[in-house]
Amino acid sequence: MDNEKSYQSTGTLQRVIKLNSLLSDNPGIIDGIMYGIVIGKVEMRTFEGNDRHQRSVLNFTFRDSTQDFVNVAYWLPPKDLIIISGKFTIGDAVVMHYPVVKTKLGDKANSYTPWTPLPIELSLNEKSYIEKIEGPKAKQYEHLAAVPCRAGNDYYTLAHIVTQGEQLVKKLDGINVLAGVQQIGALKTIRTRRQRETDYDNEEKQLLEILLFDGETSGVWLTFWDSEQIKFAQRWIPEEHIIFCVGLRVRYDEYRKVYGLTATRHSLFTINPDTNESVQLYESMRLIPIDDLLNVAIDGGFNEQISDENLSKKEVFNLNVHLTDYTGTIKNVKLGDDVARKMLKCSVDEFILMTGEQKTKLKWTYLLERFRFGIQIKNSSNYAKPIVRIACIFPREYLPSSINDEQL
Questions:
Q1: Quick one: 35 exposed, middle or buried, by C-beta within 10 A (0-12, 13-18, 19+)?
Q2: What transmembrane ranges does the database entry give (predicted)?
Q3: Sorting pLDDT into bands at 50, 70 and 90, what band is 261?
Q4: Where are the domains of the chain?
Q5: What is the CB-side half-sphere exposure of residue 307 using CA atoms within 13 A?
Q6: Which superfamily does CATH assign the domain made up of 158-295 to?
């Protein structure tokens, strides 16, 4: 058995157990302790037990080596679990005392937890406990925070989200994404009206939106609804952090007609992953000023009903344009507010105040000029033809140098 011995503050000697020494065919309580790092955590859930007493569960993902990580479920009464949950967060090094080994159940039973490579999962209860550690022991595990949970080249680009969103929506288990943090939005509070089995049908929920970008595409929003994931994402640094995201859902926003990403209970996030792909992405993003990435910057989409008392009623651009290249013309292409504002370099209010002469001059600044676009095509049962929308406009240095280059 791969283990070591460790003295605790009480002076007692306890075995240190590693994940790779645990077997699925030998379940039961572990007579020892386990050191590692928390790589994922979601907010606790509460249930009514058969005895009419409430029980709560806190799910998190624990890692103790580059290869091994498992899901952990901590079961306690709600008031006790709230205290425990507040003592550690994603990215913390921890030690678990007396966890229980269980055989991993089927996919249905694990619908609320991330994928893990081992055939086991761990459980904590009243006889167990977990605590955050610091100092030299914690430093032994800090490097694991930079190890992605899937292969470093197993991901979709943001361009895939924009152009292939219709197909990616069907991936119910989610997708992996490698992208940089461009902007962290303000924390919002909304009131949901979803039907649930608990008493929280009309509760207030917080959401956080993170604007992602990479070397070629920007304007894809990642939306968080979970309070633990929100706290973690708020620590990300725009233009400095590359994020390897596992288990994101692609969703379509019917109002804004764009695709975006949503974090779920399956999602795991690695900041500045130690991979060649991450280094290359960081270097490529440094070559392009973010202000030059003229892309859609709109919400990633979600299926929630919200009250309209705080909704913005400001006027926005909603233009139809024709795009022409050497093969022909696409008519009535949608040019949304965010792309239009960045392209025209003015707001709706400023545009309204322009004279006719100023508007004509602005039109000829772009009419018949060459641009490189990223477009999104969406089939709709309400229209005979698909809806074509400009998703992004690339900087001018990305234009081909000749027609022949464009045809390649």
A1: buried
A2: none
A3: very high
A4: 3-145, 158-295, 319-407
A5: 11
A6: Nucleic acid-binding proteins (2.40.50.140)
Supply 86's token pair: 């507040």
HSE-CB at 137 with a 13 A cutoff on CA atoms is 14
208: amino acid identity, one letter: L
* Measured distance between the N- and C-terminal CA atoms of the chain, rounded to whole angstroms: 59
Identify the pLDDT of residue 229: 98
Q: How many residues does the chain have?
A: 408
Query: Residue-wise over 354-391: b if at least 16 C-beta within 10 A, else e?
Result: eeeeeeeeeeeeeeeeeeebbebebeeeeeeeeebbbb
For residue 325, list its beta bridge partners: 328
- How distant is the alpha carbon of residue 266 from its chain centre? 10
Q: Which two tokens stand for residue 99?
A: 């966890």
CATH code given to domain 3-145: 2.40.50.140
Instruction: List pLDDT tens digits, range 207-259.
Output: 999 999 987 787 789 999 999 999 999 999 998 899 999 999 999 877 667 89
Angle at the Cα of 224 from the Cα atoms of 19 and 342, rounded to 5 degrees: 130
> Which amino acid, 288?
I
Q: What angle do CA 37, 70, 303 make, to 5 degrees?
A: 95
Checking DSSP bridges between strand 242-253 and strand 175-184, what pairing results, if any? antiparallel
Judge whether 87 and 132 are in contact, CB under 8 Å. yes
pLDDT of residue 146: 94
Q: How many CA atoms lie within 13 A of 293 on its CB side?
A: 23
